[in-house]
Amino acid sequence: MKNITDSFVSLGHWPSAGSLGFNTDILATNLINLSVVLGVLIYFGKGVLNDLLDNRKQRILSTILNSEELRRGAVEQLERARARLRKVEMEADEYRRNGYSEIEREKVNLINATSDSLERLENYKNETLHFEQQRTINQVRQRVFQQALQGALGTLNSCLNSELHFRTISANIGILRAMEEITY
């Protein structure tokens, strides 16, 4: 902390700086630059991130609604299968005399097929939700990173110009000359 304070206090000792000048202490200026860049990223990136998340939320909700429709369709299939099962059971009473074991096999096959269909639909729904969530997270990460990087580069490019470079180089040369005079 003392180095940072000393770097601000030492501004008045530069021969070319006068009352105003640039802080050439790399650690202190990097902290300031990083805090400014982070502040700008948070301020401007918050709205973009909210919009991206809202869009993804709507897509996920529509995917969930589609999955719910698929589930309703599966439930309807189940109800039809149950109605068919009831019909088969009534027919079983009639055919019991002719072949009880064949009817039982048909009943078991029907129940197994319906259960397998429901299980496949449920697995498909869960896989779809998981896939959409992962894809959404990856897209949001990529967009936030790209926008943050573009914003940071834009900020840096708009702040850095040839005059600033020339003044910084001149100040550093003055410091090196002063250090060279002190050592000789």
Automatic annotation (TrEMBL):
<keyword id="KW-0813">Transport</keyword>
<comment type="similarity">
    <text>Belongs to the ATPase B chain family.</text>
</comment>
<keyword id="KW-0472">Membrane</keyword>
<keyword id="KW-0406">Ion transport</keyword>
<keyword id="KW-0138">CF(0)</keyword>
<feature type="coiled-coil region">
    <location>
        <begin position="71"/>
        <end position="98"/>
    </location>
</feature>
<keyword id="KW-0375">Hydrogen ion transport</keyword>
<keyword id="KW-0812">Transmembrane</keyword>
<keyword id="KW-0793">Thylakoid</keyword>
<keyword id="KW-0175">Coiled coil</keyword>
<keyword id="KW-0150">Chloroplast</keyword>
<comment type="function">
    <text>F(1)F(0) ATP synthase produces ATP from ADP in the presence of a proton or sodium gradient. F-type ATPases consist of two structural domains, F(1) containing the extramembraneous catalytic core and F(0) containing the membrane proton channel, linked together by a central stalk and a peripheral stalk. During catalysis, ATP synthesis in the catalytic domain of F(1) is coupled via a rotary mechanism of the central stalk subunits to proton translocation.</text>
</comment>
<dbReference type="InterPro" id="IPR002146">
    <property type="entry name" value="ATP_synth_b/b'su_bac/chlpt"/>
</dbReference>
<dbReference type="GO" id="GO:0045259">
    <property type="term" value="C:proton-transporting ATP synthase complex"/>
</dbReference>
<protein>
    <submittedName>
        <fullName>ATP synthase CF0 subunit I</fullName>
    </submittedName>
</protein>
<keyword id="KW-0934">Plastid</keyword>
<keyword id="KW-0066">ATP synthesis</keyword>
<keyword id="KW-1133">Transmembrane helix</keyword>
<dbReference type="Pfam" id="PF00430">
    <property type="entry name" value="ATP-synt_B"/>
</dbReference>
<dbReference type="GO" id="GO:0015078">
    <property type="term" value="F:proton transmembrane transporter activity"/>
</dbReference>
<feature type="transmembrane region" description="Helical">
    <location>
        <begin position="26"/>
        <end position="49"/>
    </location>
</feature>
<dbReference type="GO" id="GO:0015986">
    <property type="term" value="P:proton motive force-driven ATP synthesis"/>
</dbReference>
